[in-house]
Amino acid sequence: MKRNYPFVLASVLLACSGFLTVSAALPTSQVEYQTIADEIRLDGVVEAVKQSTASAQTTGQVIEINYDVHDFVERDAVILRLTDKKQRAARDEAAASLKEAETRLQEAQRELVRIQGIFARKLTSQAQMDAASAAFSAAKARVEASRANLVQAQEQLDFTTIEAPWSGILLERHIEVGEAVSVGQPLMTGLSLEELRVDVSVPQRFFSAFRQSDAVTVDLDSGEKIQPESKVFFPQAIARSASFRVRLNLPAGIDDLFPGMFVKVTFAGESKPRLVVDSAAILQRSELTAVYVQTDSGPRLRQVKVGREYGNKTEVIAGLQSGETVILNPVAAGILLKNPPASEREVHE
Predict the structure, then answer these.
(1) Domains parsed from the chain with CATH numbers
(2) Considering only CA atoms, which of 275, 291, 295, 320 is closest in space to residue 33?
(3) Of 8 and 241, which is predicted with more confidence?
């Protein structure tokens, strides 16, 4: 049987041209070098800026506890109360002493005015004038001392009511109702969620770049990136870990962020040329990482070794060269290879 070789050759060329035309219609991108800063990620821990333990500043017995552990407390809310009979009696006594001292002062002032008038007419001695002046000064000093005693007594009375210094969460309760407390004894421990910071240990080799970087971000699990308001550097390295401690003060009003949570701290390191490809071109199948390279004979699957992602680009460590063209829709390229155009199948048949 004779074959019409010119006809077969023409058919093959026509099929190949159709296959190349279909593959050429797929979106492509070039592999190229781009100068990209190395992205360094470190682990950080969220801390509360305001965390303290309220201690007793006067003596007494606990008669009322309004909040318990894990309760949210508004600023200036009364957390607990102590007995105040002794403090209230001291305040009342100080107030009475002040009233008496003010009365004595008015009396001494009237006496001084009277003596001054008599002395002006030279009807009394200098000694009497000096005595009246001294009595007035002493009465005035007693008033000032009585006022200071009243302020101190009022403060001791105020100390029997413990209020929240800021809005926050109670972490620990150190006393129970009915217990007697003394000055300095811990009562409640709490923290504020209004002001948070991230504590991070920066390795010594990255410390200089970290200090100079203006693109430090705190990355949350939700994908949100937060720009710190300020950075606080501890001027002494930690010898056993060869790192520096840094605090990143966060802006207020961040939802779903609580003390004790772990976050990622990201900043830009050294910039250098990197061979990158569009991340959309990468095909991941089990342990195989590959791309479809557009060649003169159509798309060809090629295994590659990739590095880190930088936005919509992925670093290529091995398998590609600068200037090569990759297909951005690897799924469509795979389907095209498995199911070539009908004209090509007919030629093979």
Answers:
(1) 26-39+273-348 (2.40.420.20), 41-50+193-271 (2.40.30.170), 54-81+161-188 (2.40.50.100), 84-159 (1.10.287.470)
(2) 275
(3) 241
